[in-house]
Design brief:
Layout (H helix, E strand, L loop, with lengths): L5 H10 L10 E5 L2 E4 L9 E10 L5 E11 L2 E7 L5 E8 L2 E6 L11 H10 L2 H6 L5 E6 L2 E6 L2 E9 L7 E6 L4 E7 L3
Antiparallel strand pairs: 1-2, 3-4, 3-12, 4-5, 5-6, 6-7, 8-9, 9-10, 10-11, 11-12
Amino acid sequence: MRRLLPIAFLLLALAGAGCRRPLAGAVYLAPGLPFRLCPPETGPEFFAIQELTFGFPGGRRETAVAAIENKGGNLSVVASTPLGQTLFTVQVRGRAVTVDARMPLPSGLDPALLPALVQFSLWPEAALRAGLEPGVRLEQDGPRRTLLLRGRAVWTVTRDGAAAPFKGLMLENPAMGLSVRIRTLEE
């Protein structure tokens, strides 16, 4: 069972970070950091199967696989175990999020965090800025993006490649001791 929920554990840790539900269409990426999901059509069209390696406090690592597609105004994320057992599917149309959980998800889990991190990693800067609350800043320095809250870096993504889907991504939240190394698998 321990190997079945790596994404769910990461999302649960992040969901517990917010103390109140943000405005409609928004999720907390960290305490005090609400982010409004962007409409899928504002991002690049792509399909990718990616291996995600999660780093947790204490050095623990977990691996999962995600099929991610953004096409026709629909962002879809299917999370599964490395052996192919589906954990859940998240769909974003406009700013509405629907979840199909194949197994019970932990209480307090906000599966919209996964598409929010996808958007933070891949969407154009202008679309992302429209979803940020006052006091939150997005900085772009070549392949590296950083979300800052009151001047402090909260999430950083480093992208490897020229366009979505990138060959690799590294998401880091140092304050929570979390990281996600993402590798796009060959089709």
